[in-house]
Amino acid sequence: MSTELADIFGSIGREQGYDDIVAEFAPYKEFKSSWRRSGRSVRFQISDYMNGADRDVLEDFATSLYRRLDRGPGRSIYTPRLVSWLMSREFLARNQALYLKRSRNLTLDHRGKVYDLQDAYLSLRDQGLVRDCPDAVFNWTVRRNRMRVGYCSVLMKVIAVSSILDQPNVPSFVSEYVLYHELLHIQDGLRPDRRHHGPEFRDREHIHPRWKESEEWLRRLAAQRA
Ligand SMILES: [Zn+2]
Q1: CA–centroid distance, residue 178 to ligand 1 (Å)
Q2: Mean of the pLDDT values across residues 96-100?
């Protein structure tokens, strides 16, 4: 229970005409918040990753959510102050380990049975394909996902690569290429416009020397049934 959170959402909400306001932190795995409104009462469940944010950041966040409540989605909630909190070292120090704990499909190890994602990252970095990314954490998935072979949380700087690629008969460049794709997202940072795979992104993706063969491998693996 955070009285500061309740206090901030309460006072901003009253200015907006609400009179019965509840705001509490909720342990969602992803960074998300939700609300239920009924007449002049509203109940917010705010991602507990916001716990520890400065008061002015929480005020920005509350203002953005109330605006969304009134005018519907499509409006970015990310004010400059919020973005700088979300991209800060402090945010990561508070939340990255918690996020990993909530991620059930990660082995929490960059070493697989065959390949080491940390080695793949160092190789990408040494080839000049990605920038230094010291806060990023690399993991193999527990399940052998075929269709979704890689994903990342830009906010938490956590990358997952499917363990289907961690087998001796799959060449190392395939998992390296998937890691490369996810590292590009992390380098791009938060994109409130949600245009993650635009033409400019595809151009950068194709800088990887083995991109074509890798895509070919991923198509074949996705098509397999076993
Ligand atoms: Zn992507």
Answers
A1: 9
A2: 97
